[in-house]
Amino acid sequence: MDTDSGPDSGPDSGPDSGPGDGPGDGPDAGERSRQLIGLLAEENRLRAFAAVALGARSTRQVAETAGLTPKDTALALLRLREQGAVTDGPEDGLAVAHDLLRELARPRRTEGSARPAAGDAVSTFVRDGRLLRLPAQWTRKQQVLRHIAERTFEPGVAYPERVVNERLRAWCEGTDEIDHVTLRRYLVDLHELRRSEGVYERVRPQPA
Q: Which helix (H) or strand (E) element contains residue 200?
């Protein structure tokens, strides 16, 4: 097989040409994805990769399927192997590295997604004006309770306990996870509502 291993110049040079780019050298998934995209951005490599994906198992078959010269085919396959995009089994011949592609396609939790936004917590636990359940995580619980207080009570208005119970009972319809008494207690504990002699008032939000 013609495996020209000389300097790789011209369109084959790029961010994937440095040392330590093999699949076992430990770059994170985001970096590996960028490397793979850069690898396939060059036309000859893309055509060779597509030929392997279509079933070409040898360098000659890849050249015929991709319409490349033997030298261009050898160079393209060399880089595809180096990056782990194509494997070369002793019995089955060339094959696409499906395991690598599946790994790079797997959704990953980023640092920014570790803390859901308030809107995400509300949309998860509140549906059609009904509380499905309260989150176990304290921060998310605060977000949901604040949402309920803002939608149910006006700041500075005094509400008798009977009215508070009626309004909170509406949030708990259709669920056995929480009742209006527990919901009212949480709102008071979190200072969303202030209670005095059986009268409740929503605490005015503090200016930012």
A: strand 199-202
Supply 27's token pair. 């770059």
Q: What sign has the CA pseudo-torsion 18, 24, 28, 29?
A: positive
Question: pLDDT band at residue 206, thresholds of 50, 70 and 90?
Answer: low
Max distance between CA atoms of the chain, in angstroms, equals 91
CB 183 within 8 A of CB 133: no
Mean pLDDT, residues 157-171 taken together: 92
- What average pLDDT does the segment 181-189 reach? 91
Please state, in angstroms and rounded to a whole number, the distance separating the CA atoms of residues 40 and 52. 13
CB atoms within 10 A of CB 94: 23
- The pLDDT tens digits for 122-132 are 888 888 888 88
| Residue 123, phi then psi, degrees to nearest 5 | -65, -25
d(Cα 78, Cα 5) in Å, to the nearest integer? 8
3-class DSSP assignment, residue 201: strand
Give the residue with greater pLDDT, 107 vs 190: 190
CB 171 within 8 A of CB 180: yes
